[in-house]
Amino acid sequence: MGRILAIDYGTKRTGLAVTDEMQIIASGLTTVETKELLPFLIKYTSTESVDKIVVGLPKQMDNTASESEVYIQKFLVQLTKAIPQIPVDRVDERFTSKMAFQTMIDSGLKKKQRKNKALVDEISATLILQSYLSSNQF
């Protein structure tokens, strides 16, 4: 069994998280500059066994797509062309940034560390992945 890779897509930075090979535990992987995202994913999926990619689906409170969905759709077209062998799922990502920030507070990170937006993105990707794992338990 391969890993599941989660993406918290942003126009500047993108947070990434992965599961273990048994697809039980979600862990933060890294944050990459979005302009380097596709080359990073191509390299990562060529060296690691990845069964699925999960991409956050940003929605407004009224369940409509957020403004960033336009950028994500463009990225998804590029992703499926570059890595067609790995299926892509979407997961509602509402509140993940707020939850990530609260997780940082709860874990005792100092105020300066909580300003690290890259860490927030990585934690958000982990929350997206954990949500996906929880909703797909049999």
TrEMBL record:
Which InterPro entries does the record match to this protein? Answer: RNaseH-like_sf, YqgF, YqgF/RNaseH-like_dom, YqgF/RNaseH-like_dom_sf
Output the CDD domains linked to this UniProt entry. Answer: YqgF (cd16964)
Enzyme Commission (EC) number: 3.1.-.-
Source species, domain of life: Bacteria
Spell out the subcellular localization from the entry: Cytoplasm
Q: Which residues form the YqgF/RNase H-like domain?
A: 2-100
Alphabetical keyword list: Cytoplasm, Hydrolase, Nuclease, Ribosome biogenesis
- Which SMART domains does the UniProt record give? YqgFc
Q: One Pfam family, please name it.
A: RuvX
Keyword Hydrolase set for record: yes
Q: What class of enzyme is it?
A: hydrolase
Check the record and name the HAMAP family matching this protein.
Nuclease_YqgF
Its annotated function is as follows: Could be a nuclease involved in processing of the 5'-end of pre-16S rRNA.
Q: Which family does it belong to?
A: Belongs to the YqgF HJR family.
| NCBIfam families named in the record | RNAse_H_YqgF
- Official protein name in the record: Putative pre-16S rRNA nuclease
Native source organism of the sequence: Winogradskyella marina
